[in-house]
Amino acid sequence: METFEKGVAPPAENFDGSSLRILIVHTRWNYRIVEALVRGAEETMISKYHVQPENITLHSVAGSYELPFTAQRLISASTNTLKFDAVICIGVLIKGSTMHFEYIAEAVSHGIMRVGLDSGVPVVFGVLTCLDDEQALERAGLGDRPGKHNHGIDWGHCAVELACKNRRWKDGII
Ligand code: RBF
């Protein structure tokens, strides 16, 4: 079978993340997988873009359904103090035998999009929506499938790129 490098290619421009403030809101539901995704995002932002570890704020919530509300409240609370440049919402939804998965996935994806558009702060959709445990492990770079890839890495690239571009856009620079 033909193989290729999974996930997003790094941006062409070398963004400087050294003064960025990033908020990661993550779930404690499916925490083993979530933890790996959070680490992938953090390590990428620190090692590739020089984001300062002390400028990354972690905040945990129970499950994915709580992500949009919490991101919205923390962005709101930070406007006069910390001012986050980007937010990454990280969760893992795994399909069960009821309709919960569908309802939560739809609400959360729309909610996260809305928080970003309403606040003007980029909010990265770091929620895996998997049909089984193996898919989730593989997409967090865990397990032993050959094609595994940690999508947290992609979300780290994405957050820094949008945060840097958004600063320019605020100054009218395109
Ligand atoms: N939250 C997740 O982040 N991932 C899940 O896979 C997940 N599955 C759930 C399945 C059921 C049956 C229920 C009741 C909740 C689930 N949640 C899950 C939690 C949900 O996102 C939220 O925390 C709770 O519904 C409380 O608002």
From TrEMBL:
Enzyme class, one word? transferase
Q: Which reaction does it catalyse?
A: (2S)-2-hydroxy-3-oxobutyl phosphate + 5-amino-6-(D-ribitylamino)uracil = 6,7-dimethyl-8-(1-D-ribityl)lumazine + phosphate + 2 H2O + H(+)
Alphabetic keyword roster: Riboflavin biosynthesis, Transferase
Q: Which residues form the signal peptide?
A: none
User: EC number(s) of the enzyme?
Assistant: 2.5.1.78
Q: Which GO terms describe its biological process?
A: riboflavin biosynthetic process
UniProt cross-references to HAMAP family, sorted A to Z: Lumazine_synth (MF_00178)
Assembly and interaction partners? Homopentamer.
Q: What is the name attached to this protein's record?
A: 6,7-dimethyl-8-ribityllumazine synthase
In which organism is this protein found? Answer: Acaulospora morrowiae
